[in-house]
Design goal:
Layout (H helix, E strand, L loop, with lengths): L6 E7 L4 E6 L4 E5 H6 L4 H4 L17 E7 L3 E6 L7 E3 H9 L1 H18 L1
Antiparallel strand pairs: 1-2, 2-3, 4-5, 5-6
Length: 118
């Protein structure tokens, strides 16, 4: 089994609200604070089953206030809206980076559907 890439550098660019991650396989990505917030791996967002996931609304202006290392396998992101319960493992960050376009489009579609219902 091949190990998933791990971050060698993580930097938050506050002005752009972007988290820049460099992985050990020379992959580099930029993920917005909003994207990371709406795809938080926490049970509060994802539920305990995909059917329990909670659509995150109004997170356009959210910022990352702190990044706390968790062992050698994850970071905990502290967001300006008070959310701080998701542990972003290296595998999950790489998955988010690898599937960014699909995930972001899916989120935008769900938001649109939510507001069309109102």
């Amino acid at each position: 089994m091949v190990a998933a890439p791990v971050p060698v550098e993580i930097n938050y660019h506050q002005e752009q609200k972007l988290l820049k991650i460099n992985f050990n396989n020379n992959t580099e990505c930029m993920l917005s604070a909003e994207f990371l917030r709406v795809y938080s791996p926490s049970a509060e967002v994802q539920g305990h089953h995909p059917s329990e996931a909670v659509l995150q609304i109004g997170k356009e202006n959210v910022e990352i206030q702190a990044i706390e290392p968790v062992g050698n396998y994850a970071v905990k992101l502290i967001f300006s809206d008070g959310h701080n319960t998701g542990l972003y493992t290296w595998d999950y960050l790489y998955e988010l980076a690898s599937n960014y376009d699909i995930l972001w489009q899916d989120y935008q579609i769900k938001l649109k559907q939510h507001f069309e219902k109102k």
